Structures are given as C-alpha cells and as structure tokens.
Amino acid sequence: MNRRQRVCVLGSTGSIGVNTLDVIARHPDRYEVVALSAMSRVDELLQQCLTWKPRFAVMPLRGAAAELRTRLREAGSPTEVLDGAAALADIAAHPDVDTVMAAIVGAAGLAPAIAAARAGKRLLLANKEAIVVGGALFMAAVEQGGATLLPIDSEHSAIFQCLPEDRATWHERIDHIVLTASGGPFRSRDPKTLADVTPDQACAHPNWVMGRKISVDSATMMKKALEVIEARWLFNLAPEQIRVLIHPQSIIHSMVVCRDQSVLAQLGTPDMRVPIAYGLSFPERITSGAGRLDLLTTPSLSFEEADAVRFPGLHLSWQALKAPEGSTTVLNAANEIAVDAFLNGRLRFDRIHAVNSQCLADVQPGDCASIEALLDLDARARAHATRLL
Ligand code: NAD
Ligand code: MG
Fold this sequence. Notes:
The protein has 389 residues and is of the alpha/beta class. It has 16 helices and eleven strands. The protein has a seven-stranded parallel sheet with strand order 4-3-2-1-5-6-7, sandwiched between helices. It has a four-stranded mixed sheet with strand order 9-8-10-11. α2 (42-52) links the parallel β2 (31-37) and β3 (56-59).
C-alpha cells in the first residue's frame, strides 16, 4: 500500500472504538487516525486526541464540544472540534477520510453510516442497529455509493471470512448460515428467577467484554435477534436461511453451510480485535493482538438449541423480517427504550420482551424510503414503548 489508510473512528471512546485504536496502534505504517468522535466523555476523547493527534474530533452535543475545544487549546493541540447534529455524517463523508469505523451504539449511528456508504468509503460496520434500522435503504446506499462494506460484528465477520471475495457468487453458494450465540450469563439460570435480574448481573458476560446496552442484549438474546436481521441484509438471505445455535465456549464465531453441505466455520479466541483487524486489512491479514487459540487446552465445543421460554426475544427477529418493511426498525427502537429502562431500574428484566413484542404488534411502519422516514418511525416506536413502560 502506497499511502496510509486515513481512518475515522465514530464512537472512539466505546468498547469497539478503543479496540480499533488498539489494532491501529500496532500498524502505524498502514493507518492514520484523522477523526475521532464521542457523545459525552470529554476526558476520554481529550486523552485520545492528545495521543492520536487527529485533524478532527466530533462531539454532537455543543456543550461537550465547547469543553473539549477549550481543553485541547489549553494543551496546545491543533485538533479541530466539530459539533452539532450533522457533524457525524459530515465527517463520515469527508474527502480526507478513506475508512470509517461505525462504532456508535444505537440508531444514532444510522445517518453517519449512510453518509459513509453514499460517499463510497471503506465502511467497517460494528453498529448493528444502523443496518437493522436502515435495512433496504442502507444497502441501497452502499450499492449506489460503491462503498466497501465490511462486517465487524464477530458472527458476521466470521461468515464473511468463510465466503469468497466475489459477492456475486454468494447466492449460489449458501444453503444457510448458522450464527453462534454464547447464551449470555443466564443460559442455565432458572427462567422463573429472571424477574430478579439486576443490571450488573445482566452486564457480567461470561466470554466478551462489551458496553452495557449490548451486554443486556446478550443476556436477553435480543443481540442475536438483531444479528439475524443484520445477516439478512449483509448476506442477502431469506429469513429461513438464518439459524442460531447456542455455543457456550464462543470459539466458533459462526458457520456457512454450503449447497453441497460442506460446513465452513471461523474459529478463534473471543477478541473483537480479530474482526476489527480483518475489516481494516481486508483482503490482507495483519496482526490483531489477539491471543492464540490452543485447541489442545480448549474445553470441548458444545452446542444447544436456544430455549424459547428463556429467550423469547430471539424469535422476534424472524417475525419482524417477515412483517412489513420497517418492523425491524420498530423492534430495535422498542428494545433500546426497554433496555434503557431496565438499566435505570424502571423495568424488570423479564419485561423487556413484553415491551418489544407489544410494540411490534402495535406500531404500523408505513414509509421507509428515507433516513427521515426511518428516524420518524424510530421515534414513533420509542414513544409507544415509553408509554408501555
Ligand atoms: P459502547 O457503549 O462501549 O460505545 C459507544 C460509543 O458510541 C461511545 O464512543 C459513545 O460516546 C458513542 N455514542 C453513544 N451514543 C451516541 C450518540 N447518540 N451519538 C454519537 N455517539 C454516540 O458500545 P460498544 O460496545 O463499543 O458497541 C458499539 C456498536 O458496536 C454497537 O452497535 C454494538 O452493537 C456493536 N458491537 C459491539 C461489540 C462489542 O464487543 N463491544 C461486538 C459487536 C458489535
Ligand atoms: Mg456479535
């Protein structure tokens, strides 16, 4: 490669953002950080700016941005701070950015991810909610912009790694895919006791270290539900071509079952730096910092069906995919409200599913042809979920 890839990390203070910077730090000859962004953690973004010296730092909230600007100036940093609602999409489409890591959490990441897609960027998509909310509109933006879409979600990266580079051959090749799920912290807890689950218990994931919202999604398996929807779009599959298996050891990250019944799997230690490194370097491979998988000391690999009583939320994904377009947007919005209420002590853990399924039944999607229409639908679903609380 002649010139370093110029990378913009959206959500740089989050779990994926920090891991992305960790991989980039190992390859200063290949990557240059040109923009970082965060929502509210000024201290952390300040430290990142002082370390990485990006041209731009983006904070959508003006107050936080002003504080960052002052403190960067005091530290003698030349980094320019951008603020306001449109700044994230502007930076994602900036001509001096080659690669966008979309690692914002939630539907807030939709507009910047679509902006990066339309601008034809190399788009590393961690923000699964963007594709769940954006669906057909998002994929059309990727197509029209000529963007290179690289999945970062570990399961989707696994599937992607098991497929040839030529996307045109995927349809002929795939019989179905199997997304693996760890089963989260409550895989073997008595379902009758799920009402008593506290936020800290739900966030204590056995295999992965993640942000709090996504950790709760892992405990309810709504994370896997969103990943089923994500896979439908990324790999252009029918809902019935996507299956889920619980695999508690999180060693096999997912599998492709080919037409000839050959099964391809991607294995490794559970470390997000592997899919991040692959997204950054595709089609090459670079070191990621992940530990070596030692199969001789690995516990034997096991698989289980996802129990519908314990994990009722999982099945909402297929239901939403078969319902009118926009139903996946409704499901995601309801879930964001329900999880937030749970984390703030306003909703019982076992009621998250009730809010999600009721919203799916009550909110009629309508128009889904623009970001504005999707965000309006998202807002309607959130308002309805809030009423249900
Ligand atoms: P996180 O909560 O640790 O970090 C989120 C980042 O987004 C932070 O930098 C935060 O400042 C920023 N942010 C939050 N709300 C924002 C808003 N409204 N506008 C702009 N910025 C905002 O989350 P995470 O665990 O890093 O996950 C990020 C995304 O990656 C999620 O969509 C998640 O589902 C996906 N993902 C995460 C993992 C993982 O292991 N952490 C794995 C697969 C996929
Ligand atoms: Mg995942």
